[in-house]
Batch of 3 targets.
Target 1
Amino acid sequence: MTNFSQVMCCAAASALLIAPFATIGGSTPGTYTYYQFPSGIRGLSVVDFSITVEVDPGYRSNVYWSNQFDFVGTSSGGYAGMQSNGGGPRMFLFSIWNASEAKSGSPGSYCLTFGGEGEGKSCRMAHEWTPGHTYKFRLAHEGDRWFGVTVTDMMSGLSFKLGSIRSESMQISSQGMMNWTEYFEWSSPSSNCYNQPYARAEFLKPVGNDGAAVASVSGSHVNAPCPANVGIIQVGSIQATAIGNSLRGAVKAGNGLCLDAKGGSGTSNVAALGYSCHSGGNQSWVHGVDGTLRLQSNLCLDAHGRTTPGAPVVVYTCQNGRNQKWIQAGAQLRSEPSGLCLTSSTAGAQLTIQNCSSQPTQSWQVLRP
């Protein structure tokens, strides 16, 4: 959920920005596109937003793609979008600040009160959205200040209603409309520009009152310092985030075993193993543009200063040293200081660096866009 007052301050930003790159704890990517409707249009009864997640950042990512709006005659607003939810069910959400009444929509939807960055009501539904499919979010006034959101998969035709929330207004404002991509691991001090997965989504221009009014792009913004950009296109914008990083997920060897941090994903100086593949956090890696292989907890695959064949590999707190840099050469992952290749053997055995060869134990699949 975005900070409403913080986002609004940035509406005058330029249409294409690329943020500088740095390793800063607690930093995550964020991109925003701002819209305006033709002059003379103040209030709308219906607005259609559309989102297509073109590149899925991975099952264990925590990314939110959303559309944000204001209401006429009040300082409150809301948003509606879709999330990849850190290994939990993928979600569609609709929320309004300063609301006190809500009711669910289609079977499986539910509503609750939210707090933290403002207070209000939120209606949501777990649904396994499909990358490459366009989802239309139809925000409509239903009478007596009640607004509902219906989601339609424009490829399959499937529709479902998230719910209805009572606002402080009768109309959607034509001002202050935007959409955004946010990584909600921003609240974790272990987050940084190198352990967040790449993602790309297309947002279409908002359409009001069943085509009577179409918005145009008025600007965009990119959160510093993580690399991202907003590309303005004829139909709206494309937001690309964590540019240069891989997706988040398993790194799998040719022998069928996955790169694994022994004992979990939160302890430094543990063995790096080849292990049966699963969807746990200790097997969910991002190959950063800096060459590191990182877990979300900011632990890195580390050759531990060793440069001789057969040396064991560990998982260690990220420190930006060369011993934590891995060069992908074809399917091989080579330790930067030695040029030796990351090598798996049997299930549960510690990984090593070895002279490079064509063996499947040195062939690694890293999830790439």
Note: The two ends are 25 Å apart (CA to CA).
Target 2
Amino acid sequence: MSRHRAHCTKRVAANIAAIAAVLAAGCGSDDDGNPGPRISATTGVAADIARQIAGPDAQVEQVIPDSASPHDFSLSAQDRAELEDSALLVSNGADLETGIPFEDVDVPEFAFADHAGELLAFGGSGEEDHAEEEEGDHGDDDPHLWMDPTRVAEAVPALGEAMAEADPDHAAGYRARANDYVAQLGGLDAEVERTLAAVPQGDRMLVTSHDALAYFADRYGFQVVATAFPASGPEAEASAASIQETEEAIAASGVPAVFAEETDDPQVLEQISERTGVEIVGGLLVETPGEAGSYVEMMRRDAELIAGALTAPG
């Protein structure tokens, strides 16, 4: 019996040790699933970029849903409470997120626009028009800087430093991932350039639904010759004058397509198509990666969409 009791005692001890190990592992899993500080990022693009740098060391939460416009989104009481519980707020800046009262939220902030070089003025439409604007009135800054991956790459090291300052215990990881992502963006830039190389120089003209591709055009040698909706956000309604200007630009340039975002007013674009004979190419991703899944894939898909529509078959 004593040998039996000893055997049972060993089995009980072994079971207790196994249970303790499982509980310890479970606690570890909880910690791993909820690591480090909370980082809030305003848009889908900002959130995806922030996640590349945060890695497993921080939680990145998107503030503005993909279904909402960053131009007119306003914080709810819950949004504000969650934001104020963050160690860092990552935004685009340049007045993209006009509904968020940054000055009233006591959270360290990083804005891409502060680290992405000299911004273009709204209405800039590529190399020629940008040069003309530098001599005159710049107007408001164009916030769509992420449409040039080299500008994002320029800002990423500073984002890594902002995360390192917010969470010094994981500073080395943030900096290392920032360097890796800069290299990835360099590869993306080269890939986009190769994709667009199929478009002849004389055909590098863009007609878009919104004025959101100036940085893309400036980087890759295109010119935005017209936009049906002259602004972004809730005020972006096509006027009779803007529609007429768009149709005249289509006729003068001979572009085969108008590039549109999914949220655009289809009736206006259908009218333009009927009167000019151009194709409306939808699915352009600008405000958020959406179904593309990531910022890198979004830029890759946009480049393929543009090259495909502007390259003559055969």
Note: The two ends are 90 Å apart (CA to CA).
Target 3
Amino acid sequence: MEEIVNLINDIIWSNALIFLCLAAGIYFSFITKFLQVRYLKDMITLLFDGKASDKGVSSFQAFSIAISGRVGTGNIAGVATAIAMGGPGAVFWMWLIAFLGASSAFIEATLGQIYKTIDESGQFRGGPAYYIEKGLGIKWYAVLFAVVTVLSTTVFLPGVQSNSIAVSVYNAFDIPVEVTGGIIVVLLGLIIFGGVKRIGRVAELVVPFMAGAYILMAVIIIFINIQEVPAVFRLIFASAFDLEPAFGGIFGMAVAWGVKRGIYSNEAGQGTAPHAAAAAEVDHPAKQGIVQAFSVYIDTLFVCTATALMILFTGQYNVVNPAGGFIVENIPGSAIGAEFTQMAVNAHFPSLGAGFVALSLFFFAFTTIMAYYYIGETNFSYLKQKVGGKFWNVQLLRIVILIATFYGSVKSAELAWAMGDIGVGAMAWLNLIAIFLLRKPAMQCLKDYHEQRVQGKNPVFNARKWGIKNAEQWDKE
């Protein structure tokens, strides 16, 4: 099974996908005139704009659900893996893909809002499957994305999160992975059987706490090592451009793993965040697009950087040589993942580090699985509506994700990550092509927002004014 998974992974994550992700970020950055910089102030103010309604969640709740999906094991174990496989220079490429990816995040989230709909329960639903069908008019493509997303978010991706939780808890507290997996399944079941409203409420409470506590720990460690900061940043930049002799010869690995783990972590262009964005109750689609662009910054420029600095300050990491062995070997064994981060924090707080990282990882990864379920349910609902049949029972979907979550917690980390990469890569391929083809309505929406802001108005969107069809929620007389 591992051989098959790795073969599929190598095909999906060829250099073509890495080029596509970078090219999309560069292209959208230029056509939006680098909105990720121009609207930095709006990102903060719009975060608290709008309130929840019977049909949708608030902007902050949608932001929290999206952050739940973005901020997960990729921010702790993923960053460590990127450093191990691509050297410190991989961190720079994670930063770059986040900066460029913020523009892709705006496009996809805005499209999610433009083409959102109301489901049978009276709540907003949306995402790539919806905007592919309504915007491009290609139903088979929309169905394909929905099928791939259901498989990815309920079968392939949850295991990465639960595996990282189980391994880190075992390292910190010596609790068997089976026990941790069982606890995760019970807690997850209590939340997902309560529906999207409960997911939104839990995310709204947990996300600010978990991210704040983790970044606070990083700030303390940075303060302790403040004199090392310039040297660490020099190491990152030198390694990123193959100027550091210790990491010579792995420039391609630095780029590949930085982009790969960067996309896995911030999910920009992957097609996950538009589901949460579409659920928001706002009066202009661009507002939620700008908020979702900010969530990419939170994920990578804050949380991922915090992890990277904690690891690089101590030098407690290995860098794997693609030809075998290690380029740099500072810790015994060949562990790649959350263990690096635990060792790094342990170097400063021996009695606290491993437990703190395990607890942080639990909150990070657990809320990500919650977000995965919401995304899976949204696409499940779409397939039920478009394909029909008697087997579209949401209870079945919930049971599948609970089984996959437990299975991932007891399997090897290598298999879990490889399956997760397949899910991320397959969704990214389909979504990036779609948002490129649908860039016109998203750009019209941005232009409309900008014009009203210049006039001193609170932007309110009317799809009919711009001739955008099939945007029923925004089609006003």
Note: The mean pLDDT is 83.
